[in-house]
Amino acid sequence: MGKTTFIMIGAAILDVLAKPVNLSAFRVDSIPAETLTTNTGGDAMNEARTLAALGAKVRLVSKLGEDAAGEMILGRCRDLGIDTEFIRRSAEIPTGVNIVLIDEAGERRFITNPHGTLRQFYPEDIPREALEGGKILCFASIFVAPAFTAPVLAELFSQAKQKGLLLCADMTKRKNQETVWDMRECLQWLDYIFPNYEEASLLTGRSDWDEIADAFLECGVGHVVIKAGARGCFIKSRTERLWVPACRGVRCVDTTGAGDTFSACFLYALDQGYSLEDCGRFANAGASFCIQQVGAVGAGNDPEAVRKRAGLQGTEPTCV
């Protein structure tokens, strides 16, 4: 990747995961779980971890508490070679921790701490210097931190554009009945956006895949990449429309971090110069590695293995 830097902005937390868990957990004193584990989590951390493991040069811009959970996350970043210069620490706010309850099918339910760093990440936690020296910036999840309203994001995104960064964003479900039109002032800056179908449908008020993507395009987004789980992904721009099927024959153990892994792998492939379709194939393959294990484990550290599963061995990149 040479001097290329991915700048990932957003949540870095600790996940405590249990699988399998069903409603019986709330009716008895204790239940056995096949897997109980602790792992790093949070949108930006998951994406940074995936990129770094694939060999990319990554900067993480986030916020942690001055506590044991924060130290664990920083230690993992150091192990992966992630630039942590712009991770703020707070003695007053605890590091965000999620309890992740995973059912037999691999679907998750979260118990979150609203008073931790996950929700108390603020615009002033992102110094202007954090946007320097990169090539691709991803704001890892719109709607996670309440302080990042549409006007605030618009200001951040305009600064990123002034620095010549390719600008991308991931998102989660809207929190206050926002619509895509409410978010237009910040969406207009984005080159790529990575919602899943439910997130995108709620925000646009539409159910048809093309109509959902068109709503984002009408707001100025350059490329809409909708994560579709077992169906793969739907990609649309003003000149292209693609369905890219998911990898087959993959057993889903846990979907935690799969969407973040997808987004990170798409960006990795994009920077490698692959076509939009091949970026989707690489991203689907990367996410398929993630769902085979418990936790947000990313796509592994072997890009060639991801290319092989995606059917991209020997494929010559073509600039998008």
Mean of pLDDT: 92
Uncertain regions spanning at least 5 consecutive residues: none
Lateral strand order in the biggest sheet: 5-4-1-8-9-10-11-12-13
Strand content: 15-25%
Overall SS class: alpha/beta
Query: Element order, helices and strands?
Result: EEEHEHEEEEHEHEHHEEEHHH
Summed up, the helix count is 9
Range of helix content: 25-40%
Radius of gyration: 18 Å
Taking the sheet with the most strands, its summary is: 9 strands, mixed
Q: Layout of SSEs?
A:
Blueprint: E1 5-9, E2 13-19, E3 35-41, H1 43-53, E4 57-65, H2 68-80, E5 87-90, E6 97-102, E7 108-112, E8 136-142, H3 150-162, E9 166-171, H4 184-187, E10 192-194, H5 197-204, H6 209-218, E11 223-227, E12 233-237, E13 241-244, H7 258-272, H8 276-290, H9 303-310
Parallel strand pairs: 1-4, 1-8, 2-6, 4-5, 8-9, 9-10, 10-11
Antiparallel strand pairs: 2-3, 6-7, 11-12, 12-13
Helix pairs in contact: 1-7, 5-6, 7-8, 8-9
How does this structure look, described?
The structure is a single chain. The chain has 320 residues and is α/β, with parallel strands linked by helices. 30% of the residues lie in helices and 23% in strands. The strands form two sheets. The chain has a nine-stranded mixed β-sheet with strand order 5-4-1-8-9-10-11-12-13, with helices on both faces. Strands 3-2-6-7 form a four-stranded mixed β-sheet. Helix 1 crosses helix 7 and helix 7 runs antiparallel to helix 8. The model has no long low-confidence stretch (mean pLDDT 92).
